[in-house]
Design goal:
Layout: H1 2-17, E1 21-22, H2 24-34, H3 36-51, H4 54-57, E2 62-79, E3 85-107, H5 111-177, H6 183-217, E4 227-228, H7 240-250, H8 252-273, E5 279-292, E6 299-307
Parallel strand pairs: 1-4
Antiparallel strand pairs: 2-3, 3-5, 5-6
Helix pairs in contact: 2-5, 3-5, 5-6, 5-8
Length: 308
């Protein structure tokens, strides 16, 4: 037991001293850079930003273009009432067509305005979701970081307690040797030392677990060694009322809930807009050219506008 205590009290601090220091600021920076959830939410935010356009809302006209070319080879035999016979083998024909169509919704019961508001709200919602993911990541990192600091302080207290336990055992042995003590006091001191040693081993195991979890949150190798700082700047001038006001005003989860409510209201207005009449404008242009080696027409060409 004395050998084990020697390792715990002397060798373990030497190993810790050789590990690099990880401050809470550095931990947050690494975590935000490597967190995969944040990367995914950023991509979703970029998609929502790209979708937020007047065209997707329906303000702009839609233009469709089409073109085609076809060829055919046919045997043709035609007999007219005049007695003339037109017999062609391998008669070739080709058709070329092209068209352009513009469709523009001029009025749709204000649905396009509602769609644009929805796209704006979705973009704002994606930004809040990114902020919430960042806040949650920071909370997870710092809560585990400060938990590790707390356990380290508990370990320091236990190490001092173990030193006292050893002193008690030494004094109990001395008193027992001169006949001024009792064996019960010696046994009680040994029991206390064993209990404190077991608790220290549990705390050491908890430290290892927390370090593994922190490394996982930072996107690093689970076994990467580090030590945490034990000194922090603590603000003592915080006002509970002011903190509550800021929480209600800046709480990201509450702001997201408000965005969900706004989306529901806008969707309802958009549905009601479908009951209104719709005014559309259409404009089209088409061109058709046909050539044939058999039949009534050798060439045929048409083009023109359509509108409505």
């Amino acid at each position: 037991m004395k050998i084990a205590q020697f390792i715990i009290l002397f060798l373990f601090p030497m190993l810790i001293a050789a590990q690099p220091l990880l401050t809470e600021t550095e931990a947050v920076r690494i975590g935000l850079e490597n967190n995969y959830d944040i990367r995914l939410v950023r991509k979703d935010m970029a998609i929502a930003e790209n979708n937020n356009t007047l065209g997707n809302a329906g303000f702009l006209p839609e233009v469709e273009l089409s073109a085609g070319q076809s060829y055919s080879i046919n045997d043709s035999k035609q007999e007219f009432l005049t007695g003339q016979i037109n017999d062609r083998k391998g008669a070739r024909s080709d058709v070329f067509s092209a068209a352009a169509q513009l469709n523009w919704t001029l009025f749709d019961g204000l649905q396009m305005f509602r769609r644009y508001e929805i796209l704006n709200t979705l973009q704002q919602q994606s930004e809040l979701e990114l902020l919430l993911t960042v806040e949650q990541n920071i909370f997870d990192i710092l809560s585990n970081y400060y938990g590790l600091v707390q356990i380290n302080e508990q370990r320091k207290v236990l190490k001092r307690t173990l030193e006292i336990d050893n002193e008690r055992i030494f004094l109990a042995n001395q008193m027992l040797e001169i006949g001024a003590g009792s064996r019960l006091e010696l046994l009680q001191a040994e029991v206390d030392r064993n209990a404190d040693s077991a608790m220290l081993l549990k705390l050491n195991d908890r430290v290892s677990q927390l370090k593994t979890h922190i490394n996982d949150l930072l996107g690093r190798d689970p076994g990467e060694a580090f030590v945490v700082s034990d000194s922090f700047a603590i603000r003592t001038n915080l006002s509970k009322e002011l903190l509550m006001q800021k929480m209600r005003a800046n709480n990201t989860a509450l702001r997201l809930s408000a965005q969900d409510e706004r989306l529901a209201q806008l969707s309802l207005k958009q549905i009601k807009g479908r009951q209104s009449p719709e005014l559309d404008f259409n404009l089209g242009y088409s061109f058709n050219d046909q050539n044939s080696e058999a039949g009534f027409l050798k060439t045929s060409s048409t083009n023109g506008l359509t509108y409505g």
